[in-house]
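ok so I'm stuck.
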Amino acid sequence: MLLLSGPNLSGNEWKYVKDCLDSGWVSSVGSYVGAFEEAVAHQAGCRFGVATVSGTAALHLALLLAGVQRGDYVILPNITFVASANSMRYLGADPLLVDVDEKTWQMDLDLLEEYLAEACELRSAGLYHKADGRRISAVMPVHVLGQMGDMPRLCRLAEAYGLKVVEDATEAMGSFFAGRHSGSYGLMGCFSFNGNKIVTCGGGGVLVTDDEGLARRAKHLTTQAKADPQRYFHDEVGFNYRLVNVSAAIGLAQMEQLEGFVERKRQIATEYMKALEGVGDIGFQQVVEGSQPNWWLFTVATRRQEVLLSALRAVEIQARPLWVPMNRLPMYANSPYVQRNDRSAFVHARCLSLPCSTDLSASDLLRVVEVIRKAY
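replied:
not stuck anymore, here's the structure
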């Protein structure tokens, strides 16, 4: 099976894991955890990094630390992986869904700006949704497929309306906008290191921030809020969210290779676009001006999505449609959805991600292209 986005374990992964096993430091207190946190924070251009067991855990913590409360809304693009919305529901909050741009597949900021001005009310206690009187406490931009939207504009909107910005940068390690790395624009940013990400720990996440107080409390909460290093005294409800040393060792070795991984992803995207330009009705994700994406998952748009998916699967080539839009999932079907013509449905019905592992060979890429051309 030719994988969609498999791990590339060609660096110091074996060496660092062996060091963990030889030393016996396999839990969350080993030295690789701190080194991994520092490497991620440095890459993002932030002062602090706090490792977590998953990207979802990082999102949950970030929203909690941002002050999101039960009954609040958090603004979220309608096209995203479900973990973004789930992290809100863990706190008893709900997503306020915003449609995406048809070409970039990022949150439609024109639509958001209009909605904030017309459907929301700024009071002394914060921003409120006129229709039901519920508070809107934060906005979570999602850098879909490693692309980035206009973050300076989003941050200006958030500041004008008193909203905290928590970046879902789980797909965007190595992505930049206007020279700033993903995760560095918001109050906090969150990365994922799942097995299919550009950098992996097998599973894991990191919360980054420039706020020392937030970083300290995040680390406290990830360790079950243990307040005494010797005695089992806990001063609030915490979580078992710490990343273990073995996983961090893999992640550190992966971070050492990030620059090469991103360059290979960009090469793959360029090669696919050159080979598929003019084939049938195939189109490509448009890059927002100022964005330097990591091209995490190379994705095409076509009305023949199902045909291509079947053709690729028949020859054991893994391909995936984009996630079902959040407003079509049963648990979020009643969440407010800001849209004019439901472009999320258009994107979902047409988009298909193609194999783009960083160790994808030229011959395998050509094999994918030939299957697609034949299907047309």
